Every structure is written in structure tokens, then in C-alpha cells.
Amino acid sequence: MKKELIELLCRKSFKYSETPAFKLVSGRMSRYYVNCKPTTLSSRGMFLTGHLMFEAMKDSGASAVGGLTFGADPIAMATAFASELKGQPVNAFSIRKSQKDHGIVKWMEGDIQPGEKVVVIDDVATTGGSTIKAIERASSEGLEVVRAVILVDRQEGGMDNIRAHVPDATAIITRDELVACWKQMTKAS
After folding, report:
1. I need a surface site. Which of 95, 117, 125, 145 has the fewest CB within 10 A?
2. What is the 3-state secondary structure (H, E, C) of 112-126?
């Protein structure tokens, strides 16, 4: 499944340039661009991502999985769906970028309660900033973040930054794996 997901990410979500050509959120230029949404919102991508993410979190003792909207949302939903298929259900949750200002004012949505153990996920980690923000918000809402799982680690220090907040942090796919696949696919065509 992982090999197929890497190939799908290379086709739908990954761009590479020998020189820095892609502007990041930080304003810095990069040789790599990763937008997982075309993959995680495709039916096959959801299937693969959900199963691989569930495998990466199933032994954590967590009852729910989620992260900062919008990158984590399709992954959390796919993971929850896969968990039900595997007979080990976990719920999905979503953390807003800005606090809801009406009704019951809160940061999060989902079937979760304070005190529950959760896994915070994200689609891509560069510096780890959005994952750390999700960890902090989940913790402030009374959740116990027991693990962080990233779909794609850009290998630019983000995982180390995340581990400073949640020591049990891992990535399913690395930038190096995407580059190797991209180069192989480019060579073949």
C-alpha cells in the first residue's frame, strides 16, 4: 500500500525542481512542492491513506484521530472509516484555524470528550508549525495527545520540532521517498 501511495502522491501531489522554484508559506523558496489534497481527496488516495494512517496509530490507545483543518480532515475521515472496517473504531475530529464565535464557542468538532487519548495528524510537515498548533489546541481542550503522525515529512526539521511537543511522532512517507519515485517516473517517461 505504501508504494502505491507514494506513486499516487508523485502523480497527483508532488512537484520537484533542480532549482528552488516553489514558494512556501514561510516565504522561503524550495525545490519541492507537496499538496496532498489531490491525493487524499481521491477515492484511491483516501483508501490507501486511511489504511496506512490507521496502521501507524492503531497501537497508540487513542480513541480519536484528527488535526488542523483542512490538511488533516480528509486523512482523519479516511482513518476513522478504515478503523471501522478493521473492527477497531476510532473517531475523527477537526481543529479550526480560528475559534468558533457563535453557538458553543469551541476550537474543535467531533465526537470527543476531554480526557480522551488522541492522535494528531497532518498531511505535510515542513517546520511542523501547523501540527504543533493542533497539538496545543487539542491539549487546551483537555485531550491527551499520545502520538503525532504525518503523511509526508519534507525532512526540513519539522519532525524534530513536533517531537519536542509529542515524543511519539512519526511520518509515513519522506521527501526522499517521493524524490526517488519522481526521478524513476521521470526517467521512465
Report:
1. 117
2. CCCCCEEEEEEEEEC
